[in-house]
Amino acid sequence: MPYLTNIVARRIQWGECDPAGIVFYPRYFEIFDAATTAMFSAATGLTKYQMFEAYKFAGYPMVDTRARFLVPCRFGDDVTVETAMSEAKRSSFNITHRLKKDGALAVEAFETRVWVGRDPADASKIKSQPIPSEVIAKLSIP
Predict the structure, then answer these.
(1) Using an 8 Å Cβ cutoff, are 112 and 86 in contact?
(2) How many Cα neighbours within 13 Å face the side chain of 117?
(3) What angle, rounded to 10 degrees, do the helices at 48-55 and 25-44 form?
């Protein structure tokens, strides 16, 4: 099933870079986390906080990730991040991010996340729960 691709344009900030002015690799994962939330917001029309209320969930923590770093990005570079769900299961889903600089693929990342709610047996814990069909429908391309 094809899913919505959300595109975010942004400028690389100094705080994301090492002393040489090149993006410090863990910062890409912060960028991708924000891009995942932007994708859900674009699809649902809700902020993440509003999604907590609307869908009674506790988030979508990452359980697996990897990335390929192809072209370095530097302070001041304008980049785009293309984010799309590539697969949805009962409670887990896969996301692909494609960060581009000057139209060239600079970083490609893959994530597996799990839709979670508070554990009914112990509210201090989280537990996987089914992704609402309404959310999947809003992310799907007819």
Answers:
(1) no
(2) 14
(3) 60
First to last CA, the chain: 9
Q: Is the pLDDT of residue 1 over 80?
A: no
Query: Measured between alpha carbons, how far is 70 from 123 in angstroms, rounded to an integer?
Result: 42
Tell me how far apart the alpha carbons of residues 13 and 138 are, in angstroms, rounded to a whole number: 32
In sign, the C-alpha dihedral spanning 41, 48, 82, 139 is negative
Task: Count CA atoms within 13 Å of residue 5 on its CB side.
Answer: 9
Q: What is the distance between the alpha carbons of residues 12 and 106, in angstroms, rounded to a whole number?
A: 13
Query: Helix, strand, or coil here: 93?
Result: strand
Q: Is 6 exposed, middle or buried (0-12, 13-18, 19+ CB in 10 A)?
A: buried
Residue 142, pLDDT score: 77
Q: Quote the CA–CA distance of 92 and 61 in Å, as a whole number.
A: 10
Task: Give percent above pLDDT 70 in the chain.
Answer: 100
The span from the CA of 140 to the CA of 1, in Å, is 7
| Helix ranges restricted to H, the chain | 25-44, 48-55, 133-139
